[in-house]
């Protein structure tokens, strides 16, 4: 912070401060050693503030009588729209996935299930009994069942649950879209969702579950495997993030809280390791083989 000017405590700076805010000049007025001190963080604003102070003291400028704050005063709609468009071009699937999860958090919440929530839960392959008979499942299996094996990842149980998963989806998903493609991310999510949701259904004891966290841990371990096996592709995570994700998985597993889908986390994590290692190894073999093929 930079000291811009100092005045006595008798000087009323409230209107001057109001004038600065109306001119969008960020500042603070502090009391230091019995004096009022105007401090600012941005050096380019200092000269403008000093000129305004001189004009304000001379009565040449004054703050507007009516403050009319609007959203556009704090957020530039053009910049926001442009940023969203650039983000969509770089990571369209990640943005669409986050948007769908946010909409369904309102219309299909896990905490207060609606008919739409029930339609998106994992299918009941026991058909009302306590036993899953594989032959019966295969006989009745259709595309709707397949889709419902995926859709629990779109459901969330509250704002904290949603924000946590969307934050990590935005952190990990665009990495894959930029380094590989949106199609690769889509196929990866399908694999991870099928495994993590099925593990949760088989070992979690209920169909009433949802959330992207199993897929998030799978995306993390998928990227991690590519970083280890095929670093040339550009998929990489900082060591601190790797440590955090592994530690959080271990801690949540040890705590074994009922509200946490540990089975989905572990299933997604292991699926990401296996799928990531297989695809990274296959890509490395393909790249090496292609390089060694003689050309005319």
Question: What is the topology?
Answer:
Elements: E1 2-8, H1 14-22, E2 28-32, E3 35-40, H2 43-57, H3 71-74, H4 77-90, H5 92-107, H6 115-120, H7 134-140, H8 143-150, H9 159-179, H10 182-204, H11 213-229, H12 239-255, H13 262-292
Helix pairs in contact: 4-5, 5-9, 9-10, 9-11, 10-11, 10-13, 11-13
Number of strands: 3
> What number is the mean pLDDT?
88
Order of helices and strands: EHEEHHHHHHHHHHHH
Top CATH class of the largest domain = Mainly Alpha
From the 3D structure, determine the CATH topology of the largest domain: Rhomboid-like fold
Share of β-strand residues: 5-15%
Structurally, the number of domains stands at 2
- Which structural class should the secondary elements be placed in? mainly alpha
Shape: elongated
The helix content, as a percent range, equals 55-70%
How would you characterize the largest beta sheet? 3 strands, antiparallel
Distance from first to last alpha carbon: 66 Å
Low-confidence parts, pLDDT < 50 over ≥5 residues? none
Strand order of the largest sheet: 1-3-2
Could you say what the CATH architecture of the largest domain is? Up-down Bundle
What is the CATH homologous superfamily assignment of the largest domain?
Rhomboid-like
Counted by DSSP, the helix tally is 13
């Amino acid at each position: 912070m930079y000291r811009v000017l100092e005045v006595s405590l008798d000087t009323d700076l409230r209107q001057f401060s109001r004038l600065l805010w109306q001119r969008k000049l960020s500042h603070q007025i502090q009391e230091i050693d019995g004096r009022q001190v105007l401090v600012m963080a941005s050096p380019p604003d200092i000269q403008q503030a000093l000129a305004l102070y001189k004009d304000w003291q001379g009565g040449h400028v004054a703050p507007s009588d009516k403050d009319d704050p609007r959203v556009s005063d704090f957020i530039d709609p053009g910049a926001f729209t442009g940023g969203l468009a650039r983000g969509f071009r770089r990571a369209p699937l990640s943005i669409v996935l986050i948007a769908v999860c946010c909409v369904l958090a309102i219309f299909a919440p896990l905490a207060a299930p609606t008919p739409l929530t029930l339609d998106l839960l994992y299918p009941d392959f026991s058909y009302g009994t306590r036993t899953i008979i594989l032959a019966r499942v295969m006989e009745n299996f259709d595309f709707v069942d397949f889709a419902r094996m995926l859709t629990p990842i779109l459901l969330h149980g509250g704002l904290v649950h949603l924000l946590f998963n969307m934050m990590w989806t935005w952190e990990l998903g665009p990495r894959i879209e930029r380094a590989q493609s949106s199609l690769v991310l889509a196929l990866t999510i399908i694999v991870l969702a099928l495994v993590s949701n099925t593990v949760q259904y088989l070992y979690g004891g209920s169909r009433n579950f949802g959330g992207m966290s199993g897929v998030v841990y799978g995306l993390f371990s998928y990227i991690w495997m590519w970083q280890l096996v095929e670093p040339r592709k550009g998929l990489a995570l900082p060591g601190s993030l790797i440590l955090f994700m592994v530690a959080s998985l271990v801690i949540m597993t040890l705590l074994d809280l009922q509200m946490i889908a540990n089975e989905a986390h572990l299933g997604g994590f292991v699926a990401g390791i296996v799928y990531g290692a297989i695809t990274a190894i296959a890509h490395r073999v393909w790249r090496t083989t292609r390089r060694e093929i003689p050309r005319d």
